[in-house]
Amino acid sequence: MTYPYLLPVRDMMFVIEDWLDALSTWRAVPEWADLDMATVEQILSEAGRFVAGRIAPLNAIGDAEGCRFDNGDVFMPTGFVSSYRAYVEAGWPLLAADEELGGQNLPGLLEVALHEMLAGANHAWLMSPGLSHGAVACLKAHASEEIKQAYLAKIASGEWLTTMCLTEPQAGTDLGRIRTKALIDEDGNYRLTGEKIFITGGEHDLTENIVHLVLARLPDALPGSRGLSLFLVPKYLPSANGMQRNSVTCDGIEKKMGLKASPTCTMHFDNATGYLIGQAHGGLRAMFVMMNAARLQVAMQGVGHAESARQRASAYAEERVQTRTPSHAGDDAPTPISHHPAIRRVLLDLRCTSEGERMIGYWVGEWIDKAARHPNRAERKQADAMASLLTPIAKAFFTANGFNSASNALQVFGGYGYMQEYGVEQTVRDSRVSMLYEGTNEVQAVDLVLRKVLSDRGETLRSLLSIINEESAALAKTGENGAQISVVLSTLCFEMNEITSAVIERSEDDKELPYRVADAYLSAAGWLLLSFAWARTWRICVSRSGTDPFHADKISCSQYFFDFKVQEFFHCRRQVQACMDSRIPVLRSGRA
After folding, report:
1. Residues with catalytic roles
2. Which run of H or of E encompasses 265?
């Protein structure tokens, strides 16, 4: 049997209303000043009903059927086309879009919550529309007015879907090796020729047109990534007779470990017509707008997987009975395995991960909203710096924990988890790819250390520590337990500042050091953020836990986190120190 995906709307509302106090941010933005929590709850509840009713039931079906490739065409699994059209007709793609595009102009934070729901319910389904938000941001920032008029509204509404065409067989993360060529013909149009691989949604039957955003190289381009340009290449071109097929074809779809209901395509461009986006040779600058917008969504995929895995493991552990536990020694009746200490620990680990990361993920979404809409320029600048710092941490840390959570949840099922019957093995398979795309987690870690910490010598990181230390000071006033958590939190901030200063100083003489420490440094930052999340949760809930089981459970999870999980930070901190003090050897023996 498979357990239904239950939308965690109550917890989402707790994060938005209590943990973030989002109303205080929205009141500063004229467009959102009248938004209230009753409206937010109604929106999330309606989204939850749609996702639970139309999207979640297709998860196992899509995994079993997969996508079908037939002579250049790709056909989605049963129910995907009709559910996607219902999604578009209900206006969900336009939730946070600008009014001039037909959007509802709501905070992007609500779209973050929607994407978490979709990822937890059916990650493969989310993959096709998942890039649209980033494509809209890219075109708004860099496209000509003509292109905006022709494409923006249709992409924003979901009428047309988009792709991001970067990777080639010889060029993955190293985009400077891209070979796809763009030439200018006698009419001043651009013609693209080349091959792209691993293209999500490169071909499908969800929409009548697919808009490809393609990195390619003009004849006068400099070598390396700085010579790349970005082009919009539609599947169909407008013509006097309607829509004319462009010379873009799908050569096949990949057979993958997971996400079998999401077509991963090999695309061939054969003198295809394209339109330049932004400046010639400025393609990476334009494309990074799209990639950065996508990275928080990928982070929330990790949260969705952790939540889905937690729900399945919790439901199974309540039903599965086993030999009595030590705490029931006087009772010969078997008890649910959820009573066993080992399983209780796993279930609490899952909950600390999914709920803690939801808090931080939504917090990143709020920073992005501030950077885009806050009326004060200084506030926007600070918010943009904070969002830039937090995004690579969220992407790498959340997706790694999403996969680990799925694996740990499978363990709760014992041998049954390895079978398809309960669906948790699909979550393990589907969650693994989030650590790879939109920049591997190793790339995110290097980006954090080199571009976000070393570039400003830790200034933004120390601004983050100041915020966390403010929380620590507030905690100290909430009683003995709060004071103890406050001491731990301030200690973590001190240690993070110490290792940051050491990395900055020693990187001046050891140019490889940032790369050696990057993974452990990012993980330490992730555990610091989770500690911040659960510390603030303690402070908010401690005065409310007497009458409400919801808040009482939050207190218990917070206590568990600081009794057990906070030690992960110190482990990562020791790893950073080890990477500073030691070189990583190069093995020269080749294969065994």
Report:
1. 438
2. strand 264-277
